[in-house]
Every structure is written in C-alpha cells, then in structure tokens.
Amino acid sequence: MMLRGRRRQRQRTRRPLLHMVPNLFTILSLCAGFTGLRYGLDGRYELAVALIVAAAVLDGLDGRAARLLNIQSKLGAELDSLADFFNFGVAPALLVYLWALQPVRGLGWAVALLFAVCCALRLARFNTEAEDPSRPRWTQHFFTGVPAPAAAGLALSPMIAWFAFGHAIWQHWFLNAATLTLVAILMVSRVPTLSVKRLRLRPDQIVPTLAVAGLATALLVTEPWLTLSILALLYLASLPVSILVAARMRRDEAVAGAVSSSGAAGEPPAAGAPAPSAGKDRVVPFELRQGRS
Questions:
Q1: Long-range own/partner contacts, residues 41-44 (CB < 8 A, 24 or more apart)
Q2: 227 contacts 220 by C-beta, under 8 angstroms
Q3: The whole model's pTM is what?
Q4: Is 102 helix (H, G, I), strand (E, B) or coil?
Q5: Which of 16, 99, 219, 237 to pair with 179, CA 20 to 30 A apart?
Q6: Which residue from 131, 151, 145, 39 is spatially nearest to 85, judged by alpha carbons?
Q7: How far is Cα 95 from Cα 274, in angstroms, rounded to an integer?
Q8: Helix orientation angle between 45-69 and 148-155, rounded to the nearest 10 degrees
Q9: pLDDT by residue for the chain (293 residues), tens digit each?
C-alpha cells in the first residue's frame, strides 16, 4: 500500500513536457546573450547586438508562453530574472565598454558597473512589487522605471546609430558614458512606462495593427539598424506620454475611491441593525435647532 501511494504521488507531481516551453525560451535567451558577448569580445559588434536583440525577443516569448499556458512557477521567475540580468545588464554594459569606454578605463568601467548594478536593483524591485497584493490598479498597466530589455536597447542605441550612419561621433566615450548613466537612472527611477501586456485592441484596430507590425518587420529585415534607431527614439518619446496617462489614471482611481467610500458611509443601516437611540446622543438637524431657539 505504501508503494502504491508513493507511485501515485510521483505521478501527480509529474508535469507535461509542454510546461518546459517557457523555461526553454529563457534558456535560449540566456544562450543568445552569452554568445553575443563572445562576439563582442572578438570585435564583431553587429552580430553581438543582433544576438542581444534576439535575446530580448526570446525574453518576450517566454512570458507570453507562460501566460498562454497558465504556467506560473518560482523556478521560472528566478530563472527569468537571472537571464535578464545577464542579457540586459551585464552584456550591454560590457559591449559598450569594449566599444567606446576603454579609452577612459577607470571611469568607463565605473559607468558600466553602475549600469549593471542598477539593472540588478530594478529586477529585484520588480520581483518584490509583483508579489504585493495591495498595489493600486493603475500600476498594472505600467512598469516602474524602464524595463531591462528596453534599457539594454537604449544603452546600445549609440552603437546601433553607428551601424546605421557610420559617423565617429557615436563612438565618443562621453556620449556613451552619458547614455549609460541616464538609462541606469531611468531603470531605478519611479517613472511609469507603458506595458503592452495589458493593452487591448478593438476589433476595428486589429487590421491596422497587423499592417504596422508587417511594415516594421519588413523594415527590420531590410534596414535593421535604422529601424532600431527609430524605435529607440519612439520609445523615448513615449515616456512623457506614459507619465501623463499614469497621472490621469492615478487621479481617476483616487476620485473613484473617494466616491465609493463616501457612498459606503451614506448607506442605510442593514436590516436588523439597532436604530439610533433617542436622547442626548441624537443628532438634531440644524434647521430644527434654529426653529427651537
């Protein structure tokens, strides 16, 4: 009987092979980021950046697969955070250091360290806030600070612009140091940034969205570096919009909460509740007090 019970328990704890798909995407993302760093050490920066972009795409796919399959696991969350830290914190900082910051050595290394540390802090804060059940509803539509994949793209944007336009100014150490520092600050800031996970489309918006996605894919295939540079500019332009939208949603939620609380305070007493006692504790309306005086 004990052996049968143990066998049944093992069968219940087994998981279908399909449950490994999100973690498989995460492992592939980590392999892409690590290989991109290897090509960066060899000086093949275009291929290195392309692999970082592939890691970002795979990172989006693992979360999407986990939501579609309704698979939530502590292992997957920890693995995803570790892969994100390496792919979008360590690898971009080292690539920028090797490409542009080596002439200033100590200062350049300090800036690269700052970016990696801020990425780790941003991911740690994201993990702790995701487990907080008391978060306001409006925060479900926004990230707090720039997410790690977008931060990696912004950090590599001078290098990508150099690929697209070939001007030496994009490789200047001061421009890259300032970019890394600014993006590091944005990662750990409280600036709300839009999250596409909660976006919903109306039926009449599906076809135009697919057309735009098809155009973006075609541009990525034909002119990848110019397209990525434009996407980086559009993302920066979206930051003020997200701040304004988040402020409006926060204000609307506060007004709705105040109205609901005042409505709850003005509700009639429930059936069976004791009636207010007559006597000195009874509140007399102002008009009646005026009539008595």
A1: 41/98
A2: yes
A3: 0.80
A4: helix
A5: 219
A6: 151
A7: 73
A8: 170
A9: 555 555 555 555 566 667 788 889 999 999 999 999 999 999 999 999 999 999 999 998 887 887 777 777 788 888 999 999 999 999 999 999 999 999 998 999 999 999 999 999 999 988 887 766 677 776 777 888 999 999 999 999 999 999 999 899 999 999 999 999 999 999 999 999 888 776 777 888 888 888 988 998 899 889 999 999 999 999 999 999 989 988 888 888 777 777 776 665 555 555 554 554 444 444 444 333 444 43
Q: Which tokens belong to 271?
A: 């059936």
Structural tokens at position 20: 């490994």
- Cα–Cα distance measured from residue 290 to residue 293, given in angstroms and rounded to the nearest whole number: 5
> Is residue 136 classed as helix, strand or coil in its secondary structure?
coil
Residue 118 to residues 148, 234, 248, 288: CA-CA distances in angstroms?
Answer: 10, 23, 28, 65
- The position carrying tokens 């200033």 is 104
Joined tokens for residue 12: 């219940």
Residue with the two structure tokens 């110019």: 226
For residue 149, how far is the Cα from the chain centroid?
8
What distance in Å separates the CA atoms of residue 163 and residue 161, rounded to the nearest whole number?
A: 5
Q: In this structure, how many other beta carbons lie within 10 angstroms of the beta carbon of residue 245?
A: 16
The answer to whether the CB of 171 falls within 8 A of the CB of 104 is no
Counts of helices then strands in the chain (DSSP H, E)? 12, 2
Q: Which positions ≥6 away from 188 have C-beta within 8 Å? A: 118, 121, 122, 125, 145
Residues in the chain: 293
For residue 82, the SS3 value is: helix
Task: Report residue 213 as tokens.
Answer: 């996605």
Per DSSP, the three-state class of 193 is: strand
